[in-house]
UniProtKB/TrEMBL annotation, chains A, C:
CDD domains with a match to the protein in the record: ThiF_MoeB_HesA_family
Top-level taxon in the UniProt lineage: Bacteria
UniProt entry tagged with the keyword Nucleotidyltransferase: yes
Matches recorded under SUPFAM superfamilies: Activating enzymes of the ubiquitin-like proteins
Ranges in a coiled coil: none
Domain THIF-type NAD/FAD binding fold: 5-243
Keywords, sorted A to Z: Nucleotidyltransferase, Transferase
Name of the protein described by the UniProt record: MoeB/ThiF family adenylyltransferase
TrEMBL record, chains B, D:
Family, as annotated: Belongs to the MoaD family.
Domain of life according to the entry: Bacteria
Record-given protein name: Molybdopterin synthase sulfur carrier subunit
Tagged with keyword Signal: no
Keyword list, A-Z: Nucleotide-binding
Gene giving rise to this polypeptide: moaD
Classification via Gene3D superfamilies: 3.10.20.30
């Protein structure tokens, strides 16, 4: 069976020893969209020991353009992404243990999974910074490296966070970026996904074979359509008083108050989301104008999106009309606002 | 002269990939203020800044000849 | 059905118009290994009109570590790569026309395909420079752009050749490189494949939507494990007297003499023999059933013989596994087939 | 001083990723000859050469301060 990995064992930085290590490791991938699918496929083909994948979503027709584990049939059957992923991944490599969780990733769902497993590495494949800051806190609290990745349009970025060594996401970004460009507002092409995945999976392999010396220490960012590529040295961003990786961490995203709160507005077929941060309505309006019928006034922005209507207030409240499901509401919120 | 590279939505906002500014010395914070006024950027908070491919903070000083990149984090995945 | 491409249509450089163009184009991918699989999947997910894929090989266990269209089952069934690829690609997007050819790519097999189809773009997914120089000649002779790509270890390179505009491969490399590193001698990790694919597929999309202005004009080269990335401006490499893209081209790789009949598949401990005649597999199977362990499918016959394994394709090609000697290979061929 | 970046098998051959050479001016051809003697490279034909990220030919002149990359084509796919 090691014959199957022969080309990887031949690679001088992996070898027999490295392959054995890969086979003993457990990776957690958070999100099973484009980046999640592609990273999962790489790790499973590479012979990872155990892979846990979390995603709350099911396969939709618009996913097929870039999410490599899914087929038309998965879409017809509306399979949860992690379930469809597990099926394909086991056809690819039946010797890997795949643990799927159909779950919204938040601190209440993630912490128990982390605590009862022995996770060697977390790969970020989420589509929003809320969850990335949460992963960042978890990484530092439980001393697990994580690899950030994101993409949109033909752009992407990636950075590897090693607790105790590198700056963390909180060092790089003082606060949650509001309204980053999302795949659902400005689109995406599949090579952007692959490029980020190439960086993430390479760093993952380095960490799994414990070749820390070779890790990329820069933040990488690119735009494939503009033929642009840049790496940024970030050592100096590490902050002594960082609330996540500093000397006296408070792990702000593991506190109940920092969570984006969703509540059902009873009988109104509406979910209210409270984000706890101001939303720049005007900028958002510019970006969303092609996405759906839009109305703006000084207090709010309202948009018809799919069969729903989202009303976004400047003070950070969002109403999603047309659903009683908190999961659907959150998904729409992340698709529109990021 | 300082060369400024713009990415993602910042490019869209002003329809240019890079701009040049004639100053000898300026802090990152001051440059942000200047660009907000001059180009009407909606928001330059939470945009990562790099001077000559190194992460920079608001109080860092940019010299003539430097290349500054403004990189808004992208969120998708 | 356009809903399926909505994220790609939203991308400002593609749009409705670009998507329509993609749907009308015909791409030829030469090779269906790691780069071929990954490029094919991207184009099919992106909604390419028609895709022709050529490969001479069948799926083996060592492929699964990095070749994204194939599963353990394809390997058990010893399916030709293009046949296994077509099956998966149709599950991904049933509206794309996939034309597989189980063929060795040489000028006798390629030219007829080019002449009877209207190919808009050729993607290089071969594993050798013999074939790349052949593609280069074909590209210039028939005025079809091609996108070079190669990878090994954690390294890769890519370059886009636009007839009449850019230098061609012959301009960049005066002659066939001898003994380049191969996947079978120094191994490979899958992110290297993805990175090259990301470059190739992005350039492919630019060409398909006719956004020539955005094309990368540099040769890109990288090493993911060493965190190295470089682009090289090559305009000045274009040679007036180039035998392929110069004023009086001779297309040296389209001459009969430049073809080989027996070839070593480098580092694979395998020799390929091209007989130039069709082989009656079923008759042969009957005769060989007592000679060694035999497996037959509609495309090929495979037999364990002494310490070797011979795989005999209906179209007249034979692979002798277990030797690097052309002489031994020929001998086994003659012993089995006569 | 000229900085020379090595890739692929060239790195392996001498176990270094880059080397530095103290010369003022040298052609690509001359540099290849020099490296063949000094570092015993088996073969530097069919290796692409770039000076400061631009494709270079054998007769091109390298100046002190330039960065030269030696890039052997990789063949796999």
């Amino acid at each position: 069976m090691t014959d199957r990995y022969s080309r990887q064992i031949m690679f001088k930085h992996i070898g027999e020893m490295g392959q054995e290590k890969i086979g003993q490791k457990h990776v957690l991938i958070i999100g099973c969209g484009a980046l999640g699918s592609a990273n999962a496929e790489n790790l499973v083909r590479a012979g990872i020991g155990k892979l846990t994948i979390i995603d709350r979503d099911y396969v939709e027709i618009t996913n097929l353009q870039r999410q490599n584990l899914f087929t038309e049939k998965d879409c017809d059957e509306q399979l949860p992404k992690v379930i469809a992923a597990k099926k394909r991944l086991e056809e690819i490599n039946s010797s890997v243990c795949i643990v799927p969780h159909v779950l919204d990733a938040n601190f209440e769902t993630l912490c128990p999974i982390i605590e009862r497993s022995s996770i060697d590495l977390i790969i970020d494949a989420t589509d929003n910074f809320d969850t990335r800051f949460l992963i960042n806190d978890i990484s530092l609290k439980y001393n697990i490296p994580w690899i950030m990745g994101s993409c949109v349009g033909s752009m992407g970025m990636s950075f590897t966070i090693l607790p105790g060594q590198t700056p963390c996401l909180q060092c790089l970004l003082d606060s949650l970026p509001v309204s980053g460009a999302t795949c659902d507002s400005v689109g995406i092409v599949s090579p952007a996904v692959q490029m980020v995945t190439a960086f993430q999976s390479t760093e993952a392999l380095k960490i799994l074979v414990e070749d820390y010396y070779s890790l990329r220490t820069t933040l990488v960012t690119f735009d494939l359509w503009s033929n642009y590529f840049q790496t940024i040295r970030v050592e100096r961003a590490k902050k002594e008083h960082c609330p996540t990786c500093g000397k006296q961490p408070s792990y702000p995203y593991l506190q109940y108050d920092s969570q984006t709160k969703t509540e059902l507005l009873c009988g109104r077929n509406t979910v209210q989301i409270r984000t706890g941060k101001k939303i720049p309505i005007d900028r958002l309006a510019k970006r969303l104008k092609k996405v759906g019928q839009l109305r703006v006034n000084p207090y709010l922005l309202s948009i018809d999106y799919q069969s729903y209507r989202a009303v976004i207030f400047r003070d950070g409240r969002v109403l999603i009309h047309g659903t009683n499901s908190k999961e659907i509401a959150k998904k729409i919120y992340h698709q529109l606002i990021g | 002269m300082i060369k400024i590279l713009l990415f993602a939505q910042l490019q869209e906002e002003i329809g240019q990939k890079h701009i040049e500014i004639e100053v000898k010395e300026i802090t990152v914070q001051q440059l942000k203020e200047m660009l907000k006024v001059k180009f009407k950027f909606a928001n330059l908070d939470n945009v990562m800044v790099a001077i000559n491919e190194e992460y920079a903070m608001d109080q860092d000083v940019i010299q003539s000849g430097d290349t500054v990149a403004f990189i808004p984090p992208v969120s998708g995945g």
